[in-house]
């Protein structure tokens, strides 16, 4: 108490600044009234939202209807829906390679399979982990931390860790060697690489979903289980008849959340595989990024069109999530 | 100074009219209590005076100056909130100092005022504690202290005792009265508890559904309630109300019949009555007198509460409920029939609309 | 001791009838131990690897710990010689330095008596290995590459973005939780809507806006689009709604201006939620990758994440540096994890947002 703490020392300059701006703000309040101050408090956030989220959202539509490689809107030519028709121009709609933008359709296909496999495995493993963490465990918070640990790691770190492990001289091959098998160059094999992207993203994010499911499990009233125990209900029956139905709303939210994140997959995979080998792990976000910025024949209009299509999917998923959330909320209130 | 005048004050939240045409003149140094059932608009009225709510119509004057457009900060009033609203992250001392610092008072004077208030309220021992470390009663004192240090033109108190336990409430009530005597400033006090109102107020403002029903001293309200609502609200236990009909009128007196057919001659003063008028007769439970005369209406008791110093009996008279507070310890049981002399006690007679027509002075003494 | 074991290995069977292990107990422990290995193993492997010399990194099979083959300078030889444990014909072992190898026979000398050459069958010798930490994996990238610069850029972006996030979002949350005004629900809706707009959907137009504002190749271009997070507004607003309005009224009676109410009353009381948001923001901004990759094209502006990915994508990947820098990049997040894990897990469980 007597010696000033570090934080209170840090606050000295901050408080000085606050004292200086206090007087003009008081005058502002005199002029605008309390209601005006509400606008003042909201303004910075709305300004940033407006410039960096809403404006781009609007511009995106304009962008998707213009051509050329220039970035400034004024230098771009209006071409109507040409970008969209280009995306959808295919000889055979069952074969992405017959499309003009075969990379787009490859990315769509890859993303689709990635989403399907990753989300189902994610929910399964996260649910198992949550159920296990919800048991009477010693040092439960330690075990929770174990599964949660990779969640905070940066995608680049995740990508590099696994790139190092899947290397020819990496840990995985070392493991095979111990069992007398030959080392393999995993990241040059299309199927193994695709599997690796799923595995790595499971590794990196499973803890997050497990945590949300765990919160849902812990919200189930204990007396229900006690009542079931009194009735001598079998554990499997308790799971199917009590746990799962009561967890369902929470689980549904988790599924949609996982879908939303999964559709946008990029960072760690880009570092791990760069989309390769070939285009076997090229996903939508990377397609948009490369079409818009990185490739030699960059085409921001096409990238915008693709991103709007992706945005459409995300909006649908988010609306589903909000719908579920709303329903859960009104249920909770009752 | 501390004269507050409300003229025709209205307040609505959207379509909901919460205050309707409030006229009130509060004199300097007065202790005024707003009382009324929950949700009748007492807090809202207090908050419009404070400047925390803008009026939808009418005028508020403080010391002769119109303050409708003056913000809460500049009205020179202090408020004690029902929840105390102490700043949880500040010590008691900082809580008291906050308002003074905001008006750029010199440090020395702030210290002096805080010390004085602390002495007065006997809160010196815990000046460096946070509100969370205090008991309810201690917090309450700090909340009052925060108002005192400001030396406001008037204190506004919104149910300041309602979060205390019964015993503490009684002692703090007495302290508040003493404090008002010492400070001599205007105090406006909101409560839904009529006992608090009766014990503290110079004048009581009885409110119902956004309207003022009556303004007067506690005894005025008790003795001459303007209407049935005030009569029922002031006084505990509540006044009994019995239906009656005027059957005969003469100068200065009237004859009424009660539900059971019992007749009584009452002194009706100047009241204008007509034969056939349906009226309601109010009688306070304490005023009822047991009679030995079997002619008098009988009540069938269904509950007898012996409190030692008095006996409370609940009964049924001619199909209407009757509650009486009888002195001392009575040998009565549920199921007994007891006769009451209805011309002896003070009787308030109300018309169909609830307005008081006249009061029969009674003859009980 | 028995108690501890029973506590740690608490299981279904023990709970009820005291009979042996239920299959779910076995499964639980397989899952937990497997999880421990899979979740921590890769990171531990990374840390050990980052301490190895390039030569040790190229070895296969690799050793777990960073070993190097010992060398010794021996009188009469210019270059340092490799040291081996050699098994002599009589069964004793000696530490010898290898001079050269001819076929299956190595010519070796005793480092202490370099005069006499000893011939040893190569199957009878094994390298002398000692643990050695290649700390220059860590020091060199800071000195010879731009990593110090990247580190600084990352720290700058993280700290500044977090501070602005806290101020801007708490102001908005304050307005949205404590004032009634026209357009409040519209503002809420707008903020909610932005939850649906991830970077990948708007990166192209956002880039053009950043360029127009002259923020391309500027750390501010990285910072500004990230600071108005809807998540932040929601977390803070939810918390501020629990602060009683009477407290604000009391402050108004105490002559506080609205700004003072925000700064002196509401903000201190929101500290727990601000702490959660600050932790989230630090982790988010430290880990940001795609957007900095787009905005920053000059090497001296790279953040750690961008720098790392660019270096790791080069043709001749210098893994020993990359691994060490990956560890450096991981450190702040691991610190956050160790010390603030409880905050984060409750934060996520409470809001369902990452
Ligand atoms: N901010 C508000 N918005 C809408 N209605 C309100 C608001 N404040 C009070 N009311 C309504 O006004 C009426 C009077 O409230 P109040 O003055 O608090 O009553 P009380 O006499 O119990 O103090 C109540 O019906 C209440 O619901
Ligand atoms: Mg009230």
UniProtKB/TrEMBL annotation, chain A:
Membrane topology annotation: Multi-pass membrane protein
Membrane-crossing segments per the record: 37-63, 112-133, 145-165, 192-217, 238-260, 302-324
Primary site of residence: membrane
UniProt xrefs under CDD domains: TM_PBP2 (cd06261)
Residue ranges of every copy of the ABC transmembrane type-1 domain listed in the record: 108-321
Keywords: Cell membrane, Membrane, Transmembrane, Transmembrane helix, Transport
Pfam families: BPD_transp_1
Xref: InterPro entries: ABC_transporter_permease, MetI-like, MetI-like_sf
Domain of life, source organism: Bacteria
Localization, UniProt: Cell membrane
Family to which this protein belongs: Belongs to the binding-protein-dependent transport system permease family.
UniProt protein name: Alpha-1,4-digalacturonate transport system permease protein
Organism from which the protein derives: Neorhizobium huautlense
Lineage, highest ranks first: Bacteria, Pseudomonadati, Pseudomonadota, Alphaproteobacteria, Hyphomicrobiales
UniProtKB/TrEMBL annotation, chain B:
GO molecular function, one term: ATP binding
Classification via SUPFAM superfamilies: MOP-like (SSF50331), P-loop containing nucleoside triphosphate hydrolases (SSF52540)
Keywords: ATP-binding, Cell inner membrane, Cell membrane, Membrane, Nucleotide-binding, Sugar transport, Transport
Domain of life: Bacteria
Keyword Cell inner membrane: yes
Domain spans labelled ABC transporter: 4-234
InterPro entries per record: AAA+_ATPase (IPR003593), ABC_transporter-like_ATP-bd (IPR003439), ABC_transporter-like_CS (IPR017871), ABC_transpr_MalK-like (IPR015855), ABC_transpr_MalK/UgpC-like (IPR047641), Mo/tungstate-bd_C_term_dom (IPR008995), NA-bd_OB-fold (IPR012340), OB_MalK-like (IPR040582)
Localization of this protein: Cell inner membrane
Bilayer topology term: Peripheral membrane protein
Family according to the record: Belongs to the ABC transporter superfamily.
Name of the protein in question: Multiple sugar transport system ATP-binding protein
Native organism: Neorhizobium huautlense
Automatic annotation (TrEMBL), chain C:
Major location category of this protein: membrane
Domain ABC transmembrane type-1: 151-340
Annotated TM spans: 21-48, 150-174, 186-207, 219-240, 261-284, 319-340
Assigned keywords, A-Z: Cell membrane, Membrane, Transmembrane, Transmembrane helix, Transport
Domain of life: Bacteria
SUPFAM superfamilies: MetI-like
Record carries keyword Amino-acid biosynthesis: no
Cellular compartment(s): Cell membrane
Protein's membrane topology: Multi-pass membrane protein
Gene3D superfamilies named in the record: MetI-like
CDD domains, per database record: TM_PBP2
InterPro entries: MetI-like, MetI-like_sf
Keyword Signal among record annotations: no
Family classification: Belongs to the binding-protein-dependent transport system permease family.
This protein's name: Alpha-1,4-digalacturonate transport system permease protein
Taxonomic classification: Bacteria, Pseudomonadati, Pseudomonadota, Alphaproteobacteria, Hyphomicrobiales
């Amino acid at each position: 108490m007597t010696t000033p703490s570090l934080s209170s020392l840090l606050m000295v300059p901050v408080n000085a600044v606050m004292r200086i701006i206090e007087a003009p703000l008081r005058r502002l309040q005199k002029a605008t009234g309390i209601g005006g101050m509400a606008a003042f408090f909201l303004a910075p956030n709305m300004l940033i939202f407006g410039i960096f989220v809403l404006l781009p959202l609007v511009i995106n539509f304009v962008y998707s209807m213009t051509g050329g490689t220039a970035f400034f809107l004024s230098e771009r030519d209006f071409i109507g829906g040409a970008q969209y028709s280009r995306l959808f121009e295919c000889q055979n709609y069952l074969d992405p390679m017959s499309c003009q933008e075969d990379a787009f359709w490859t990315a769509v296909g890859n993303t689709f399979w990635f989403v399907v496999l990753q989300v189902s495995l994610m929910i399964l493993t996260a649910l198992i982990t949550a159920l296990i963490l919800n048991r009477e465990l010693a040092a439960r918070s330690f075990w929770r931390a174990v599964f949660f640990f990779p969640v905070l790691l940066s995608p680049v770190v995740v990508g590099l860790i696994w790139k190092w492990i899947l290397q020819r001289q990496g840990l995985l091959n070392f493991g095979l060697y111990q069992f007398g098998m030959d080392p393999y160059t995993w990241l040059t094999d299309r199927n193994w690489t695709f599997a690796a992207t799923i595995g790595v993203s499971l590794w990196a994010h499973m803890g997050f979903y497990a945590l949300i499911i765990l919160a849902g499990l812990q919200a189930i009233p204990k007396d229900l289980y006690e009542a079931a125990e009194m009735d001598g209900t079998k554990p499997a029956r308790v799971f199917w008849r009590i746990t799962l139905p009561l967890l369902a709303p929470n689980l549904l939210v988790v599924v949609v959340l996982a879908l939303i994140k999964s559709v946008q997959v990029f960072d760690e995979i880009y570092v791990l595989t760069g989309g390769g080998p070939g285009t076997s792990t090229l996903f939508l976000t990377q397609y948009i990024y490369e079409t818009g910025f990185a490739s030699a024949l960059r085409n921001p209009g096409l990238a915008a069109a693709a991103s709007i299509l992706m945005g459409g999917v995300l909006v649908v998923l988010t609306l589903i999530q909000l719908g579920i959330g709303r329903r859960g909320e009104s249920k909770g209130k009752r | 100074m501390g004269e507050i005048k409300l003229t025709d004050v209205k307040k609505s939240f959207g379509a909901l009219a919460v205050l309707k045409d409030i006229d009130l003149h509060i004199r300097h140094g007065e202790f005024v209590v707003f009382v009324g059932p929950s949700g009748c608009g007492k807090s809202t009225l207090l908050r419009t005076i404070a400047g925390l709510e803008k009026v939808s119509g009418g005028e508020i004057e403080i010391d002769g100056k119109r303050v409708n457009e003056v913000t809460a900060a500049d009205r020179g009033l202090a408020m004690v909130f029902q929840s105390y609203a102490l700043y949880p992250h500040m010590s008691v001392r900082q809580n008291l100092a906050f308002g003074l610092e905001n008006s750029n008072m010199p440090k020395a004077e702030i210290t002096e005022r805080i010390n004085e208030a602390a002495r007065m309220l006997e809160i010196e021992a815990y000046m460096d504690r946070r509100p969370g470390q205090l008991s309810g009663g201690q917090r309450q004192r700090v909340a009052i202290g925060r108002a005192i240090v400001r030396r406001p033109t008037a204190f506004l108190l919104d149910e300041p005792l309602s979060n205390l336990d019964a015993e503490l409430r009684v002692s703090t009530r007495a302290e508040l009265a003493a404090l008002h005597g010492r400070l001599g400033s205007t105090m406006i006090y909101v409560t839904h508890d009529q006992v608090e109102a009766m014990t503290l107020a110079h004048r009581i403002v009885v409110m119902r559904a956004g309207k003022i029903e009556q303004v007067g001293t506690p005894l005025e309200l008790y003795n001459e309630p303007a209407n049935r609502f005030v009569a029922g609200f002031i006084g505990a236990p509540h006044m009994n109300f019995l239906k009656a009909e005027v059957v005969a009128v003469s100068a200065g007196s009237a004859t009424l019949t009660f539900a059971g057919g019992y007749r009584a001659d009452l002194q009706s003063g100047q009241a204008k009555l007509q034969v056939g008028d349906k009226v309601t007769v109010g009688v306070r439970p304490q005023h009822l007198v047991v009679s030995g005369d079997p002619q008098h209406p009988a009540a069938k008791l269904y509950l007898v509460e012996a409190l030692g110093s008095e006996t409370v009996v609940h009964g049924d008279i001619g199909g209407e409920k009757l509650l009486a507070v009888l002195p001392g310890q009575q040998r009565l049981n549920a199921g007994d029939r007891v006769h009451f002399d209805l011309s002896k006690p003070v009787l308030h007679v109300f018309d169909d609309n609830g307005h008081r027509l006249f009061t029969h002075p009674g003859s009980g003494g | 001791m028995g108690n501890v074991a029973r506590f740690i290995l608490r299981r279904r069977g023990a709970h009820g009838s005291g009979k042996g292990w239920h299959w779910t107990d076995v499964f639980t422990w397989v899952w937990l131990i497997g999880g421990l290995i899979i979740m921590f193993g890769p990171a531990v492997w990374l840390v050990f690897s980052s301490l190895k010399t390039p030569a040790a990194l190229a070895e296969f099979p690799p050793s777990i710990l960073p070993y190097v083959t010992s060398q010794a300078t021996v009188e009469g030889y210019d270059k340092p010689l490799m040291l081996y444990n050699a098994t002599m014909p009589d069964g004793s072992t000696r530490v010898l330095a290898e001079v050269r190898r001819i076929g299956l026979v190595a010519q070796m000398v005793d480092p202490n008596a370099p005069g006499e050459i000893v011939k040893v069958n190569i199957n009878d010798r094994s390298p002398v290995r000692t643990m050695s930490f290649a700390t220059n994996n860590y020091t060199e990238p800071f000195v010879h590459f731009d990593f110090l610069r990247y580190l600084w850029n990352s720290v700058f972006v993280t700290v500044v973005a977090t501070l602005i996030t806290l101020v801007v979002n708490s102001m908005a949350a304050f307005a949205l939780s404590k004032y009634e005004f026209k357009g409040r629900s519209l503002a809420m809706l707008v903020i909610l809507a932005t939850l649906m707009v991830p970077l990948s959907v708007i990166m192209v137009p956002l880039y053009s806006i950043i360029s127009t504002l002259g923020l391309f190749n500027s750390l501010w271009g990285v910072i500004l689009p990230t600071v108005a997070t809807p998540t932040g507004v929601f977390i803070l607003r939810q918390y501020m709604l629990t602060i009683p309005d009477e407290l604000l009224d009391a402050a108004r009676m105490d002559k506080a201006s609205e700004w003072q109410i925000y700064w002196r009353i509401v903000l201190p009381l929101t500290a727990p939620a601000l702490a959660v948001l600050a932790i989230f923001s630090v982790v988010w901004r430290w880990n940001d990758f795609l957007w900095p990759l787009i905005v920053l094209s000059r090497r001296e502006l790279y953040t750690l994440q961008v720098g790392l990915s660019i270096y790791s994508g080069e043709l001749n990947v210098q893994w020993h540096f990359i691994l060490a820098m990956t560890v450096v990049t991981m450190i702040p997040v691991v610190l956050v994890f160790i010390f603030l894990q409880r905050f984060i897990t409750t934060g996520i469980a409470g809001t369902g947002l990452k």
